[in-house]
């Protein structure tokens, strides 16, 4: 019972930690500290937040293998859903502050900024994964669930492409995220994945 309470606290703590950046950015807008373009401020920060959430979600499996700590596995679905929530809010910021809800502009916008299509495909992918992350969908999909959720790797690639297309001038920030993504993906390569439990044994001995 005590253990269950600790896990609940852990989950609630993660929930509050994931919510905090959104509250902070909204607060900055509310007190006029978000610069001359608060809409763009929200759009860009929430976009980076969505990428962070995706990277954190994908790092949980290698971290579980490395540490065997149950806590990482317990928050996987929650962080996956946070990724979807951040990405949806990012898209809503675009619709509200850039398009001004004028959907007639979308066609010319897509021609001007083709990376929007890449972002849209990534968001649709995240929505499919979010909708199939519950127990019912897991049961229904059976063996197909795992391959479907490996699509998250493709989504990560799409998001990095979307981001790459946006920056152009200074690639340093993008390169840091791409390096983190490459590291997380490398832990999934079978030879690397096999060494993680061995590394855990070695670490626990020292
Ligand atoms: C319908 C889907 C999407 C739309 C319409 C969209 C739109 C945009 C726009 C307009 C920008 C800013 C470009 C500028 O500097 O003017 C942007 C940047 C960005 N987006 Fe998206 N996006 C979408 C999906 C996503 C998703 C799914 C993610 C991540 C999971 C994401 C992550 C980012 C990141 C990291 C940036 C760069 C932020 C920065 O430069 O600081 N976007 N997006």
UniProtKB/TrEMBL annotation:
<keyword id="KW-0285">Flavoprotein</keyword>
<comment type="subunit">
    <text>Heterodimer of a catalytic subunit (MsrP) and a heme-binding subunit (MsrQ).</text>
</comment>
<feature type="transmembrane region" description="Helical">
    <location>
        <begin position="84"/>
        <end position="105"/>
    </location>
</feature>
<dbReference type="Pfam" id="PF01794">
    <property type="entry name" value="Ferric_reduct"/>
</dbReference>
<protein>
    <recommendedName>
        <fullName>Protein-methionine-sulfoxide reductase heme-binding subunit MsrQ</fullName>
    </recommendedName>
</protein>
<keyword id="KW-0408">Iron</keyword>
<keyword id="KW-1003">Cell membrane</keyword>
<feature type="domain" description="Ferric oxidoreductase">
    <location>
        <begin position="47"/>
        <end position="158"/>
    </location>
</feature>
<feature type="transmembrane region" description="Helical">
    <location>
        <begin position="43"/>
        <end position="63"/>
    </location>
</feature>
<keyword id="KW-0288">FMN</keyword>
<dbReference type="GO" id="GO:0009055">
    <property type="term" value="F:electron transfer activity"/>
</dbReference>
<keyword id="KW-0472">Membrane</keyword>
<feature type="transmembrane region" description="Helical">
    <location>
        <begin position="111"/>
        <end position="131"/>
    </location>
</feature>
<keyword id="KW-0813">Transport</keyword>
<keyword id="KW-0349">Heme</keyword>
<dbReference type="GO" id="GO:0016679">
    <property type="term" value="F:oxidoreductase activity, acting on diphenols and related substances as donors"/>
</dbReference>
<dbReference type="GO" id="GO:0030091">
    <property type="term" value="P:protein repair"/>
</dbReference>
<keyword id="KW-0479">Metal-binding</keyword>
<feature type="transmembrane region" description="Helical">
    <location>
        <begin position="174"/>
        <end position="193"/>
    </location>
</feature>
<keyword id="KW-0812">Transmembrane</keyword>
<feature type="transmembrane region" description="Helical">
    <location>
        <begin position="151"/>
        <end position="168"/>
    </location>
</feature>
<comment type="similarity">
    <text>Belongs to the MsrQ family.</text>
</comment>
<comment type="function">
    <text>Part of the MsrPQ system that repairs oxidized periplasmic proteins containing methionine sulfoxide residues (Met-O), using respiratory chain electrons. Thus protects these proteins from oxidative-stress damage caused by reactive species of oxygen and chlorine generated by the host defense mechanisms. MsrPQ is essential for the maintenance of envelope integrity under bleach stress, rescuing a wide series of structurally unrelated periplasmic proteins from methionine oxidation.</text>
</comment>
<dbReference type="GO" id="GO:0005886">
    <property type="term" value="C:plasma membrane"/>
</dbReference>
<keyword id="KW-1133">Transmembrane helix</keyword>
<dbReference type="GO" id="GO:0046872">
    <property type="term" value="F:metal ion binding"/>
</dbReference>
<dbReference type="GO" id="GO:0020037">
    <property type="term" value="F:heme binding"/>
</dbReference>
<keyword id="KW-0249">Electron transport</keyword>
<dbReference type="InterPro" id="IPR022837">
    <property type="entry name" value="MsrQ-like"/>
</dbReference>
<dbReference type="GO" id="GO:0010181">
    <property type="term" value="F:FMN binding"/>
</dbReference>
<dbReference type="InterPro" id="IPR013130">
    <property type="entry name" value="Fe3_Rdtase_TM_dom"/>
</dbReference>
């Amino acid at each position: 019972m005590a253990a269950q309470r600790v896990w609940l606290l852990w989950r609630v703590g993660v929930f509050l930690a994931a919510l905090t950046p959104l509250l902070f950015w909204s607060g900055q807008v509310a007190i006029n500290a978000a610069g001359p373009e608060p809409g763009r401020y929200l759009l860009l920060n929430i976009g980076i937040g969505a990428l962070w959430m995706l990277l954190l979600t994908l790092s949980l499996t290698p971290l579980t293998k490395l540490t065997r700590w149950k806590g990482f596995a317990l928050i996987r679905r929650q962080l996956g859903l946070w990724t979807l929530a951040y990405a949806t809010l990012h898209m809503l910021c675009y619709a509200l502050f850039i398009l001004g809800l004028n959907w007639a502009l979308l066609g010319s916008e897509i021609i001007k900024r083709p990376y929007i299509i890449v972002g849209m495909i990534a968001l649709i992918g995240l929505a499919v994964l979010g909708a199939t992350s519950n127990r019912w969908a897991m049961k229904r999909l059976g063996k197909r669930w795992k391959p479907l959720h490996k699509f998250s790797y493709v989504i990560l690639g799409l998001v990095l492409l979307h981001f790459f297309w946006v920056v152009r001038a200074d690639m340093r920030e993008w390169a840091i995220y791409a390096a983190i993504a490459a590291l997380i993906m490398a832990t999934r390569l079978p030879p690397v994945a096999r060494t993680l439990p061995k590394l855990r044994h070695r670490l626990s001995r020292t």
